Amino acid sequence: MNPVNSAILDARTGWVILGLFSVLWVFLGWLWGHKAKKLDEFMLAGRNVGMALGVATAMATWVTSNTTMAAPQLALQLGIWGMVGYSLGSVGLMLFAPLARRIRILMPYGYTSGDFVRLRYGNTAWRVFLVISLFYAFGWLISLGMAGGVLIHALTGIPYHYGMTVIVTICVAYTLLGGLRAVIGTDFIQTIIILVGITILAWLAIDQVGFEEIHAGISEQRPELLNLLMPAALMFLFNNLLFGVGEIFHSNVWWSRAFAFRKDVGFSAYLTAGLLWIPIPIVAGFIALAAPALGLNIPDADMVGPMVAAQLSGMVGAVLVFIVVFSALASSLDSLLAATADLVTQDIYRGHLRPDATEPELRKAAHVIILLLGVGTWLLCLPRLTTLAELLYFTGAFVASTIWPIAAGLYSRRVNSNGAILAMLLGTAIGLYSYFAIGFYVAALVGAGVSMLIVIVSSWLWPQEFDWNSLSENNREPLS
Amino acid sequence: MTASVNLLATLVSIALLVTLLAPVILVGLLIRDWKKRTLW
After folding, report:
1. Contact (CB, 8 A) for A313 and A321
2. How many whole angstroms separate alpha carbon A401 and alpha carbon A403?
3. With a CB-CB cutoff of 8 Å, which residues 86-105 of chain A face chain B?
4. ipTM value greater than 0.90
5. Helices in chain B by DSSP H: which ranges?
6. Considering only CA atoms, which of A87, A116, A89, A85 is closest in space to residue A100?
7. CA–CA separation, A57 and A409 (whole Å)
8. Are the beta carbons of A445 and A400 closer than 8 angstroms?
9. A360 CA to chain B: closest CA distance, Å?
């Protein structure tokens, strides 16, 4: 066994890469977004985003640091099904494709997922939904901020607080300067970097170690990873699928893109993004399977990807991994910042505090809210409490409980407000109970199941005749 | 039931091929959108 230090780069190289890419993202953010004077241009990129940028932003946002770091970890823990299970996260993107088209048709003036729930189910359901959505958004923001600090430290030795501060500051800076246009533009470049980076690393593993040696290494040291009937892996597969669907169906990250894409682009952009996303966790996960053949001693399972890359190609591989991870982090953090700021601006500030706010006031509020979200994320990430990052694990039950009220509410007139509220509340409660009583791998499964049952039964017993036209109201009218 | 070396190689090769093609597809779409002035 070759014990390898988990810091694969020296801090100086790390700072140079961080500096170069930070300047690049901020400059591009300013370049693409500084002409956005209207609220629609800043928050929704002018509602005119084309196919190429649409596909890339959906892919980049869904490739988080989790995909590049946790997919290899899962491959090492759950074997082949770990990789395939993670890739089922793409099902959420593909299932959202028809929804994105319908959202754009039904709500030509919509801004957020909160707008839909308010107009479809009324104020009580809207507030329940906002609690779920904001809880998830903050959980994800904190988890990404902390992941940034932890990963930069693990890869380069740069202290956690410096790394976390850099990643949060950079993303806040270019989102603030350019709004969604900056986010979507940088997402395109980040997607290309991630795809090319993991392709090179996987190719190195095949070229230098080879399939036969990798297979032999696993068979000898970790034969369970090749077991196609591993029960925990099969449960993970279905839970991950539903968690992904719940995350995408409810989150304003995906709704804001549905509003931002050109009218005819939403369906094909999400479907293509889903199809192109499928292989990413498999390729990233495969890199980890080379660890047994390389005789690596892995101190932390989530560092397996970078360690294998460093072992395969030394400094070049280490630099490549760092750039891929930094791109994956930035592409998700910026999207989440922009979408959460939209939700807070439209649904909290305008919806609850200033219903008569003018467009310039809302634009100014959006800037202040992005800044406050950045400061809030930074403050909550400072103590490096892992319990805060673990918040995200709990959100499986929360987000899965919104799948049916959202999906059925978009297509069926019969779904009623009380059914939607009950589905979200009971789905979350019973999903959380199962999380503690059974395990993390069933929370989303149970949350979605309970929510589905309530939506179906309540729509059958107390059907509503919803008027679709009421969704297309111009949301700029003051709220009642 | 154990995954054979052939199964592993096929799965990873297909995944790698799609990952390799993805940037080509994205850049192709970008050029098309740019020509049609439908970038954003």
Report:
1. no
2. 6
3. 87
4. yes
5. 5-35
6. A116
7. 26
8. yes
9. 22
pTM above 0.95, yes or no: no
Interface of A with B in 228-257 (CB under 8 A): 228-229
A140 touches chain B (CB under 8 A): no
Contacts of A247 (CB under 8 A, 6+ apart): A92, A136, A399
Residues 6+ apart with CB under 8 A from A286: A75, A83, A202, A205, B12, B15
CA quadruple B7, B9, B13, B16: dihedral, nearest 10 = 110
Which tens digits make up the pLDDT trace of A274-308?
Answer: 999 999 989 988 888 888 888 887 777 767 777 88
Q: Does A45 touch chain B (CB under 8 A)?
A: yes
* Cβ-contact A97, A268 below 8 angstroms: yes
The 10s digit of each residue's pLDDT in A69-92 is 677 877 888 888 888 888 888 999
Q: Which of A312, A338, A58, A318 is nearest to A181 (CA)?
A: A338
C-alpha span between B20 and B18 (Å, rounded): 5
Cα–Cα distance for residue pair A445/A431, rounded to 1 Å: 8
Q: Is there a contact between A343 and A113 (Cβ–Cβ < 8 Å)?
A: yes
Which residues lie below 8 Å from residue A255, measured CB to CB, with a gap of 6+?
A: A103, A110, A112, A113, A116, A339
Q: What's the CA gap between A372 and A370, in Å, rounded?
A: 6
Cα four-point dihedral sign A210, A212, A213, A219: positive
Contact between A87 and A282 under an 8 Å Cβ cutoff? The reply is yes
Instruction: Check if the beta carbon of residue A184 is closer than 8 Å to that of residue A49.
Output: yes
| Nearest in space to A200 (alpha carbons), one of A329, A323, A114 | A323
Residue A464 vs residues A137, A229, A420, A458, A470: alpha-carbon distances, Å: 31, 44, 12, 10, 14
For chain A, the maximum distance between any two Cα atoms, rounded to a whole number of angstroms, is 68
Cβ–Cβ under 8 Å, residues A285 and A205: no
